[in-house]
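From the shared-data thread, chain only:
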Amino acid sequence: MRTAVLADSDTRWKWGALTARRITATTAEPTGFVLRGRATPTARQLTETGVSDTAPREVTGAEFLREIRDAETRGEGYDVVVLSLVGGTVRAVLQGLADLGLDRRPVIVTGYVGVVYEKLADGLLLRHGADVVLANSRHDAERFRAVYEGVGAGAESVVEAALPFLGGAPYAPEQGRDTLVFAAQPSVPVTRAERAYTLERLIRHARLRPGREVLLKLRSKPGEHTTHLEEFPYQRLVRDLEPPANFRLVYGHMGEVLDRTDLLVTVSSTAALEALHRGVPTAVLTDCGIREALGNHHFIGSGLLTSFDRLDQGHTPTPDATWLDRQGVAAGGAYEKAFDAARARVADLLALPGLPPIAPYYTAETAGGYLPGILARHRLDVTATATRDSGLRRIVREAARGAYRHGVQRVAPVVRRLGEL
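Structure, as tokens:
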């Protein structure tokens, strides 16, 4: 079975590659592609995901579609395509795949890389038209179906599964070890004041508990970007402070960091679900409020919500078992069966003599004032791009993309910060 994964960030590459393996029940490596753009991951970021020894190829959307078309022409067509992308890009690629007019198109799978705490309706409707829309929990599956059925769109594509990167050894405390890990997020919280507050409280906690190792787990280095832009990196904010010796910044694979974690603290990172799956004590902060913009409202009812003041006093939250079960993070044999339904759905679709035409909810009829802008931003004209992307013109285009990325990732944040002085 030939599988392709198209992702637009390091975290989505991790989700897409692992999902491809779990839903196809094969040990074969998926062919990986990362979309060239604002959040294109560096080689370091891709390595730290730990999901593949083979680096995915960087492509434009049109180049990816051309690869799908040419593979079928060579008799090497892909059976499954996993779109691990933001909603608007999923809709554009769906349109591009439909326009290819393949005799035998691949099964198209998409979903979300983690907790769905914002743009639920918009993100889902942009993904409608894929053959499989994976939900990472029973909670999400119910919400997804309610959205599709509520607008009169078919909900048969929604399949309950789980986050594909849960796993690792169950939590086992070690004598003499006391490690708190704060899982940072690039855009939560977003303001400089809230990020500075969070950092200062972590450092204060380290001073109050000198016998505890306090680690600030970062996902990217300055100049790198992941799923979201990071305007105020903790690495820069910490320069103005004098943290104690038991406070450190760390990078690396989240699973490896969890191997030595005794308390995982976050605002709303998906790392909380990874930790809970392994039985690692977990805390979700309320210091900046319980707000939809922060995503920590997702944890209402979990028993995990707490504050730095309580952590300073030695409080460790106790998770609610019912909430854990609905979120798909319960450990044990249940997780091993979490992808059975998705595998069955893919197998049933592949067994059909031919797949039905791609039929998204957003069309010129249902979203005439919205869809054209989505498609125009991606410009997935395979034929035109094939004739233009050669020689000197291609080199100039690559240089322009590099300059644009440098401006977005490095120059623009500096200009915005200067404007605040």
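Residues 384-399 have pLDDT under 50 and may be disordered.
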